[in-house]
Protein: Dehydrogenase
Amino acid sequence: MTRVPKANWAGSFHYGFRDCLYPSSVEAVREVVMRAPKIKTVGSSHSFNAIADGEVALSLADVPIDPVIEGDGRQVSVGGHCTYGELALFLHGHGLAVHNLASLPHISIAGAIATATHGSGDRNGNLATAVSGLEIVSGDGRLVKVTRGDADFAGILVHLGALGVVTRVTLDVQPEFQVAQCVYEGLAWDKLLANLDEIMALGYSVSVFTQWGQQAGSIWVKRTASAEDWPADIHGATRAMVNRHPISELDAQNSTDQLGQYGRWSDRLPHFKMGFTPSNGEEIQSEFHLPRKHGAAAIEALLSIRDKFAHLVQAGELRTVAADELWLSPQYHRDTLSFHFTWVRDQEAVNAAVGHIEQALSPFAALPHWGKVFTERNIGAKYEKLAEFVRLRDRMDPERRFSNPWLEDVVFGSN
Structure:
């Protein structure tokens, strides 16, 4: 029986695929692409919109990931469908690490970089910034290889599934490092607003979790190994003495270890353990990125309308991401503060809430995460490099094999 993807991992978006093809080699991928009038690549199914939807799906699940250390130990090459959790296990055997991880280690590398998925940290770029090489099957079945410094490199990484099928990725690596995290609870809104930059710079990776209630919430500080002591409080927020879950009412067993205990980078940088269902599992997600300089004003704008969305929030999260050079990255030429929302699974109510949030954030040049829920159309027009990306697509997929109505509406502005 053909294994046809039915829904995303959270069951909140249902695909329209009638078939799914499972080639077992890169050569077979090329043959499938050349035969298919329309096809969409599916990975770990962690998107919350129709970016990867279509009639016929292509999965690389049967293609070996074949990880290899290259560049005198400075790079790793691996199948694009490898998850970050699988990659971390391989790298551990070689004493190596990548620079950062998203909150979930369950996501595929190719899907993460295609949508500019990220972790947190003032100096940490999104996950695509670690890529130094890429192999991608274009619309005519060619295996295109690009490396950092090539003319199209900055445009091809965050490609939204519109350029081809990523078969292999080369990532920069570094020596394995230790990370510890502590949670500080009871942060007041006035303290967050007055000290936002200082709070977000407290560690290698920092998140502020909030349910948009009377208190701002909690600070999750992740530090690399150092001699610094963990203070008892930070701007009035006190250190938690037990492990916490980002969704405050859930048990912390699925969360990565806290309490200031150092451990492997891959066991601390994500919020959730690889072997467990992440987050709640029954949810919808949205996220918006805006320039850091607007952070406090944007928080105040959302506080002024929280009656329109807070009742739907399971968890909110503030994170920082460093600027980059990638054409369709929300961090293109700007350090950003991201506003993440994990919603209850009520699509109609969430769409209405997101509309209010988009309106409140519109003065701050906010851009949505490409793989999550938003309601604005023609988002591509907000990217200064869209015209160059369109020309790149014209060369790589002139017959629009990898397109779908969502991409034409949201990215390319077709009606």
The mean pLDDT is 94. The chain has two domains: 68-176, 179-368.
